[in-house]
Structures
1.
Amino acid sequence: IGWSYYSCDPEWGSLQASHLVLELENELRAFDVRFVTLKGVVEIVPRKLNKGLLVKKVLRENDLIHDEGTDFILCCGDDISDEKMFTSVFSYIAEMGDEQNAKPIPPVVGSDPSIQDIPMSTPHIRDPMYCYTVAVGKKPSHASSWVNDAQAVAELLVILSKGEQETLASQSWGHTSPSSLFE
């Protein structure tokens, strides 16, 4: 659950966010949650949950459902909480074909019977398989590439969809253009 205060006055939003966190900590102390305050957002997140666990769960579920395996992964993120997501993508790829040595992930949420750990399958390893992790904003990251901003992500998605694009305004891929990322 998140509360965004991007569009309000920064000082007022920050003050309200700090009061909100104090109130929520008091009201939710019986629950195993943590509060994350980053870039104009207050998030309430279960302590045992992170984006990396969810990404690995989705990739493993895809392997169980689709016999042909995964052939393309694009993972984009713009803050510190996305780093676990990037490393989970690489971990998933490293485990492909080596299920005997793979480390099973813990259940995503405690004892909820509707959310279960996904066992390792024996996925068909696609050849070629393309995997891209992209940090939004140039900063130290586990991602393999970076773009300047959300507009560059939109440009990338247009290129991937083989749609038309009038201009490539952002040239910040650690490559000459968004399209060269896939060469």
2.
Amino acid sequence: MVRVANRRAAKKDVTSKRKHPRFNRYQSDMFLRVKPSWRKPHGIDSSFRRRFKGTPAMVKIGYQGAKKTRHVHADGKKHFLVKNVKELDMLMMVNKKYTARVAHAVSARTRKAIVERAKQLSVKVFNGSARLRTEEEE
């Protein structure tokens, strides 16, 4: 009974993950040469570094998610990146906690083999039909 309650609580945690703002680099909206990928400001007079009122949100440890739900997706499982059929065998015993995610550079033939092997091991493949769809239509 306790185990079921914990599973329900974990499922609830996953669905109620808090959102955090998109952390863009300061002044990346003003200049094309400043890319939006996050960099901590270090300027001695920087109003953003000094956290003045009206400045965008800065990265802080407080935005970090709960340990139980970190890297857990909406289906309640963690994703494991698979590049070949051999790597899929690692998920044989932990197929309730993890789903396989096929790497983007994997060919259609290898992808088809991975999906077939996953069916045998009863492992869910997150993006199993990604390249197979276009090949069957042609």
3.
Amino acid sequence: MASLGDDWRGAIREAPDIEAAGYVLGERLGEGFFAYVVAATHVESGIEYAAKVFTAAALADESAIDAVHMELATLQAARHASVVWVHELVRTPEATYLLMERLRGGELFDRMQRGPFHEDQVRAFVRGALGREIAEMHRPAAVIRSNPALGWSSSYFR
């Protein structure tokens, strides 16, 4: 299956439920303010994804819809190996599912709980992979920030 293209707004697939869209949901992986994340397996291919689930109730608020649009626009604009890859967007009557690359290996927070980092470890990490990722995300780009009071919407352009 192809990944979600630049014009994700036209790529929302409607389905009566997530199973009809070809996915089986698994364990809960995490949760946030507007959504929770579960494991999802595409039945036909066997590929595992992370499905960010926005319930219809959570998307009843216009600010929640704006937040989802902002997240999608940012993920699509970044297009970098260290930014999660968006596969598909499926809307059912009960929820909207953002199917993304499933990342494995834990969270930085989990690593931090095992004990303090030594200064040399932090320096190597910041100068290495993290530094390259931050530099990539800050290369020349224009960011328009939200200001609901002025009616501005958030967008990210490169």
